Amino acid sequence: MNIPGDVPHDEKLSRRQLLQWAGFASVAGMLPGGCASETSEQSTSPSFDQPIARFPEKVPMHMINDRAPQLETPREYFAEDLTPNEAFFVRWHLQPIPTKVDLNTWRLKLGGHVEKPLALSMDELRKMEPTEFVAVCQCSGNSRKFFEPRVPGGQWADGAMGNARWKGVRVRDLLKRAGVKAGAVDATFNGLDTGPLPATPDFIKSLAIDHAMQPDVIVAYEMNGKPLPLLNGFPIRLVVPGWYATYWVKSIWEINVLPEKYTGYWMAKAYHVPDNADGSEQPDDHAKQKIPISLMNVRSLWVNPNPETAINRVPPGKPIPLEGIAFDAGAGIKAVEFSTDGGKTWTATSLEADLGRYSFRRWRANWTPAQRGSYRLLVRATNNKGETQPMKSKWNTGGYMRNVIEEVAVEVS
Amino acid sequence: MAASEQTETDQQHRAQRTTVILIIVLAITAGAISWYGIRPGNEMIVTSKSKSPVSNAVRAASDNPPLALIAVDEIRLPHFEPMMPLGPHREVFMTNCITCHSPRLVIDQPHFSQKKWEEIVNKMVVTFGGHVYKKDQPKIVEYLVSIRGKTE
C-alpha cells in the first residue's frame, strides 16, 4: 500500500511496477511459446478444460466438434441398458445438417435400377409392417484417442457409441415394393446433409444388394419409442446392425439401386481398413490391400470401476461390484471374464439379460481384494464364434476398430 | 443462577435448537432438489412450443399417429468455435479453413509432424474441394505446426 511518507519509490519495486510486470507476464504466458511443445503429445488446452456443450435435444455432452456436430455419449449412461435419445452420441461429417424437416412434404425416394420408382411419405412408411430390435451403434473410430501413435480424426474416448431400440421398416420391403431389377449390385443411401462446397463429396454409403435385402437392415423412424432427434437423423436413418455406424446414414431421403458397384468417395476411399483378420497394420509398414470397414469386432468396456475417474480407491476385504458391457457383430456374447493379475488368470462374470443379438450385454462380478496395493483390472469378452479381444492394441492409419482388452486401475487401501 | 437468567438461557437454547432444526431441514430440502435436478436422464429441454412424443395409448387408438405428434421441433445449432491460438499465418488459416468445419476440429487434434499436417491440408484441398491458393497451403501448414506440431 502506498502510504504517504513511506519508503521512497525509487528504492524498492513500487506496487505499480510490480502490477505492470505481473500483467505483462500473464499476457506473455497466454501467448503460446511459438511451437507449443515439439516433443510433447499433449494438446495445449489444460486437462481440466474439457469442452462440454449443450446442444438442442441433448444433455451436456463432451464436444469433439461443434460444426459439424460431434458429441460423445457421457460414459455414465453405459450403466443403462438403453442409451436415452438425449444422451446418444452425435456424429455428422458434413454441414449444413438438417435442422428442420417438414413431414408434410418430406418423402423417401426409391429409384435407380428398379421397376417402379417410389416416393413414400412418413405416413406410408408407418403403414408398412414394422420391425423393432435393440442394436449397438458404434462409430468406426470410437476410442481413437487411445491409439499409439496418435492418428488424425475425431479424438473420441469411448463415448462414440450407444445402445437403442430401433423401430422401422425393412429395406427389403421397400426394395420389393419398388421391384429390384435383375443385375442389381449395390443400394446407395443418401442423407439430407450436404457439403459446404460444390466439390465436397456428398455423404452417401452403399450396401451390397444382398446385404440390403437381409431382414435386419431397416430404415428406423423411432429410437427408444420416440421419433429420432434431428441430431440423430430425424425423420429416418439406416440401421445396419452389427456393422460400424458409418453405414447408419442419417436423415435418409434417397435410396438408389445400382447395376454396378458404387464408387463414391465415402465408400471407395474413406473408411478403409487393412484387408486382414483384425484390420491392423504397422505405423512404419502400412497394409498394401485395404477394404471397406464392415462388421464390428468383439468388445467389452468397464462401467464400474470407471476408467475415466482419476483414482478408484476401494478398501480391502469388501466385495467390489464390477460391471460393464460387451457386444459383437451379432453372433452373441458367450463369456466375459476379468483378471486382477495382468491376464495370468481369468474369472468368469455373469451375463445379464439378453436384449437381442445386436444389443450390448451387461456383465457383472464381485471382487474382494484381500491385499492392499495397486491393481490393473482387465476384462475380456468372447463371442459364440470363439472370437475374443487382443491383449495388445491393434493399430491402423484410420484409427478404426479398437477392441483391445480394456483395463481400469484400482487402488486398494 | 437467577430465575430471569435461567429463563433467558432456556430461551437461548430453544432459539438455538430451532435454528439448528431449521438449518437441517433446509439442507435436506436443498439436497433433495439438487439430487433431483442433476439425475441423469432428466429431460430439461425447453422449447417454445414443445410437442410431446406419441404415447402408447394414442398409438393404440389410431393406426398411425397424426404427423403433428411425431414431428420434431426445428433446432438451432449453437456455435462453440474456439479462439485459435496466435501463430504465424493465423489469418490465412482462419480465412481458408473454417468454411467447412469449425476450427475446433483442429484444436481437438494431437500433435503431428510437419509431413502429417501437409498430408492433412492436401486432403482438405484435393479430396474435399477446399479453395486454397497454392501459395497459401504451406502457410496453413506452418500455422498448424506452430500450434499442433511435433518433430518426427
TL;DR?
The complex is a heterodimer of chains A (413) and B (152). Chain A has five helices and 25 strands.
Mean of all residue-level pLDDT scores of chain A: 91
Number of domains as seen in the coordinates of chain A? 2
CATH topology name of the largest domain in chain A, in short, is Sulfite Oxidase, Chain A, domain 2
CATH class category of the largest domain in chain A: Alpha Beta
Question: What about the largest sheet of chain A?
Answer: 5 strands, mixed
Q: Estimate what percentage of residues of chain B fall within beta strands.
A: under 5%
Give the CA-CA distance, first to last residue of chain B. 85 Å
Order of helices and strands of chain A: HEEEEEEHEEHEEHEEEEHEEEEEEEEEEE
What this model shows, in words?
- The complex is a heterodimer of chains A (413) and B (152).
- With 413 residues, chain A is mostly beta strands.
- Chain A has two domains: 71-270, Oxidoreductase, molybdopterin-binding domain (Sulfite Oxidase, Chain A, domain 2), CATH 3.90.420; 299-412, Immunoglobulin-like (Sandwich), CATH 2.60.40.
- Chain A contains five helices and 25 strands.
- In chain A, the strands form six sheets. Chain A has a five-stranded mixed sheet.
- In chain A, a hairpin with a 2-residue loop joins strand 2 and strand 3.
- The two termini of chain A are 50 Å apart.
- Chain B folds into two domains: 3-70; 90-148, Cytochrome c-like domain (Cytochrome Bc1 Complex, Chain D, domain 2).
- In chain B, helix 4 packs across helix 7 (137-148) and helix 6 (114-126) crosses helix 7.
- Mean pLDDT of chain B is 83; it is low at 43-62.
- The longest helix of chain B is centred in the first third of the chain and has 36 residues, at 3-38.
- The radius of gyration of chain B is 31 Å and the shape is elongated.
- The chains are: A mainly beta (413), B mainly alpha (152).
- Chains A and B meet through strand 2, helix 2 and strand 12 of A and helix 5 and helix 7 of B.
